[in-house]
Amino acid sequence: MRSLFISDLHLSSHSPAIVDGFLKFLQNQATDADELYILGDFFDAWIGDDDDSPLAADIKQALRKYASNHTVYFLHGNRDFLLGEKFAQQAGINLLPETCVINLHGRHTLIMHGDTLCTRDTEYLKFRTMVRNPAWQQQVLALPLPQRRQMAADLRQKTQSMIAMKAEDIMDVTPEEVEKIMAAYGVDLLIHGHTHRPARHEVSANGAMAERWVLGDWNQTGWYLVVENGELDLIEFDLAA
Prior knowledge:
241 residues; 6-stranded mixed sheet; globular
């Protein structure tokens, strides 16, 4: 069994090199995998499953083709939380809860996007509570597509401004929250994205040594975590190769 994990691709029509890199990734690095897990922020912004953009159509087609021979799982990030069952069905992928324990080759593993681990970023957590409200989502999805696209663009610009003003440690995970959630779910392995700080960390959970693996964001290079025969390896690769 060979399992791959990716996150934070931030696919967008404004980043064609990353889109092309992902399509190549499915045909190359991911071709021998049995299952692929996408841990959020797959899209830079998702305005609804009725998105009729060429990007949405191309990604659905690529995922559907890949999913015909592989199993693909998806959980939401802070950029694509509006992605729903319609897209999942059209793309042939399986939606997972935002915090999920899986049996990873016999090892109970917690997977998540990772934004809820950054508890010191109180401003973002307030925003997250608002946009995860079903009433807010229903109201937004009822808007015309052009208006939603403009909202996404405005939100992207606002988010970039907010990030620029925040201290580095605020946007990283809170160690106590990591230990707390791993203990709550009874796991010794956590895999997440969001922070754009790819690394393996040794942490304490349930009174014993545990591991936290952080996935990298895609830019000039791509990142994926491969799990095979009980071994984990975080790999960086050139998107243009």
